[in-house]
Amino acid sequence: MQNFTGTVHCLVDHKAYDLVDGVFLEDLDGPLTALIRQDYPKATNEDFICSEHLVHYRLMKMDQMIAKDYRQNHKLNQKLTRVLEKDKYQPVDVREQLEHSLTVGQRVADAVAHFGGSWPFIISFITVMILWIVINTLHIFGAHFDPYPFILLNLFLSMVAAIQAPLIMMSQNRSAEYDRMESVNDYHVNLKSEEEIRVLHSKMDHVIQQDQPNMLQLQKIQMEMLGSIESQVNELRRLQTYFDGHVDVVDDVQTSKQQPAKPESK
């Protein structure tokens, strides 16, 4: 049978408690023991602390862990805010911006470049040259304004090439400007996205490496507290059973003493 008279003294209030009403410091984890020794520097592993005061230090540990997580999350949120505020660049629609800034000459250059690089232009140009050559060779309708070797046709071709080349170059320059603005816009967007992704990775690492272990540690502390309460309840039940048995024995003895003795028969 368990010795119900064995008691130890609590480190905090120096009162006598049963062994089931608390634990020794050597049975606690390091951070919780360190937290107790902050208030009692001379405490040793052989010292005893009752469950009532142990709950206080366990709650203090839980508060510290929760406060630490809040501080870390606040720092990460501030870092993300600084990243978003640091880059004032606003992404723009480059095509729309260029469309609204085009001049009449640039629109004409784009139209000429677009038509000059298409099959309708090539087919119509070849058709005109063939008709020009046939008319001046066969003297159709009595026309003979550019005899062989078609010097006037070569002049017109040279003029078309001389005019068309600068217009195409103007359109290409505008396309190059569009590509440059698009690349700058993409660079700033990618830079901002990279910074945000880096901060989000930091938050995910914090959740995986700190928040999850802390939650498990908090659950462990809660389970230890529930286990301590359950052991105390079981001990109280055993004590109640033990004392109820003694009370029944005492009542039986007292009842037997109070009953009068039966007279002897003659």
TrEMBL record:
InterPro entries recorded: DUF1003 (IPR010406)
Keywords linked to the UniProt accession: Membrane, Transmembrane, Transmembrane helix
Origin: domain of life: Bacteria
Membrane-spanning segments: 121-142, 148-170
Segments forming a coiled coil: none
One matching Pfam family: DUF1003
Name of the protein described by the UniProt record: Membrane protein
